[in-house]
Amino acid sequence: MAEIEHDEVEASRAPLIEHLIELRSRLVVIMGFLLVGFIGCFIFSETLYQWLLLPYRDAASIVRGVPVEELDLTANFFAPLEFFFVRLKLSLVGSVIIIFPVIAWQIYGFVAPGLYKNERGAFAPFLAMSPVLFGVGVSFVYFLVLPMVMRFSLGQEQSAELVGTRIELLLNVSDYMNLITTLMLVFGISFQMPVFLMLLAKAGILKAKTLLKGWRFAVVGIALFAAFATPPDPISQIMLGGALLLLYFISIGGMHLMQSSDDRADDTQED
């Protein structure tokens, strides 16, 4: 009896070690791509930062009523190595964004052996959708959210005509970088909600009717998440909350169509 129990323990230990070895190898692959992406982004980090300053420049041109060519804007740093560390952070975040498809593929490769063939086929479309939604979230920040946030911030400036003192935004390279990276990562990850919900629906854990009935609770939860996940400005909070609410109802529609097609397939197999 003792020998049987010992054999069972050894049999269960072997697959666990194999899974850990595979997990380590996939993490090594991710870290390798992350390092290559980091080095590439660091080489062009100054150009990337200038590119990220474009929404600020365009917003300043609109708010101050000055053509872009005539603007004299300065981004400041107040510590000797501050901009160097900003470049490091920009390179790391940029590398994560660039290699996100690799990360998604490695996750799929790790869990795929535990899935049936039909389950792997069902999982593949969600794998392809995940990097696309992440890119949509990042683009949403750069082309829509960030310009609106900058216009709102620059709109707080005041001329010296009121009390003889001019109130002007003094842009800090570190603060601006923190704002951009926070917004891009938060929106990119948050835009994965349809993938997460539809995977739960595919597994039979959630149903579209359940989410539709609980939409009021979803609104409250999304509002709280947007308030805590974004920087303390109303523009980004409203934009994230509105986008997530739209994605929530889109997810419900996708879940409904997916579950209806699954039900029709089951009925066909029974016939």
Plain-language structure description:
With 271 residues, the chain is an all-alpha fold. It has two domains: 1-68 and 75-156 and 171-181, no CATH class; 192-264. It has eleven helices and no strands. It has helices at 2-43, 45-52, 54-64, 82-98, 100-111, 117-154, 173-190, 193-202, 208-213, 215-229, 234-270. α8 runs parallel beside α11 and α10 packs across α11 (234-270). It is flat. The two termini are 48 Å apart. Residues 1-12 have low confidence and may be disordered.
Shape: flat
**Ends distance:** 48 Å
Fraction of residues in H or I helices: over 70%
Based on secondary structure, the structural category is mainly alpha
Number of domains: 2
Tell how many strands the DSSP assignment holds: 0
**Uncertain segments:** 1-12
Keywords: Cell inner membrane, Cell membrane, Membrane, Protein transport, Translocation, Transmembrane, Transmembrane helix, Transport
Organism: Maricaulis maris (strain MCS10)
GO molecular function, one term: proton motive force dependent protein transmembrane transporter activity
Membrane topology: Multi-pass membrane protein
Features:
single chain, flat, 271 residues
Summarize the structure.
GO terms for molecular function: proton motive force dependent protein transmembrane transporter activity. With 271 residues, the protein is mainly alpha-helical.
